[in-house]
Amino acid sequence: MHPAAFLLPWGPFLGFGRGGSFRCALFFEEELMEIFIRNLPYSVTRDEIHACLEQWGEVSYVRAPCDETGSFRGFAFIGMNDEDALLAIEELNGREWGGRRIDAARAKPRK
Questions:
Q1: In a shared domain, residues 39 and 15
Q2: 77 and 34 in contact (C-beta within 8 Å)?
Q3: What is the DSSP string of 43-108?
Q4: Is the domain of 22 the same as that of 38?
């Protein structure tokens, strides 16, 4: 077990990820790739992003950051298994969504 982890009823707790997302060690047993999509319309919702990406495979999470006023910032991070994520990136990159050309890529690890 990770040295900073402690046990919860559903598995070892590792802390909070980017944007305050809950991280559990059991969650990381599956090989996930994080997709970064930018230039999304400000009117898009997390549920719409989730529904769109589901056509390429199971979506583990969608993080769509908001500013201090609660407005969507126009980009999102999506977790999917490696194969599905690569296919989604290939299909989404350069596609138009809500009148805007979006960019999709593998998210770079935080430093």
A1: no
A2: yes
A3: T--HHHHHHHHGGGS-EEEEE--B-TTS-B-SEEEEEEEHHHHHHHHHHHTT-EETTEE-EEEEPP
A4: no
Report residues of the chain scoring pLDDT below 50: 1-29
Question: Is 111 domain-assigned?
Answer: no
111, amino acid identity: K
Residue 49: predicted pLDDT: 94
The long-range contacts involving 96-104, CB below 8 angstroms and separated by at least 24 positions, are: 97/40, 97/41, 97/44, 97/52, 98/40, 98/41, 98/43, 98/44, 99/41, 100/39, 100/40, 100/41, 101/39, 102/37, 102/38, 102/39, 102/40, 103/37, 103/38, 103/39, 104/35, 104/36, 104/37
Q: Which of 1, 52, 99, 82 is nearest to 64 (CA)?
A: 52
* Number of folded domains that form the chain: 2
pTM above 0.85, yes or no: no
